[in-house]
Specification:
Order of helices and strands: EEEH
Radius of gyration: 14 Å
Strand order of the largest sheet: 1-2-3
Shape: elongated
Number of strands: 3
Length: about 60
């Protein structure tokens, strides 16, 4: 994972951060200390987003 110096979106500290991408095209950055929480947060959002898309698509058929 590529890192750069920036602000962590979870703890708001200026540190080396990695980019985490959401299925809707947005992204956030997380430091090493917050990465486990950030991965869970992103994964849950992505699962919910995909479920919502499937539900919407199913309703339009």
């Amino acid at each position: 994972m590529k890192t750069h110096f920036g602000q962590c979106d979870w703890c708001k500290e200026s540190r080396r951060v990695s980019k985490l991408e959401y299925v809707d095209g947005k992204h956030h950055h997380s430091c090493k200390e917050c990465m486990s929480l950030a991965k869970i947060d992103v994964r849950l959002f992505n699962l919910d987003e995909l479920a919502q898309r499937a539900k919407t698509q199913q309703a339009s058929l």
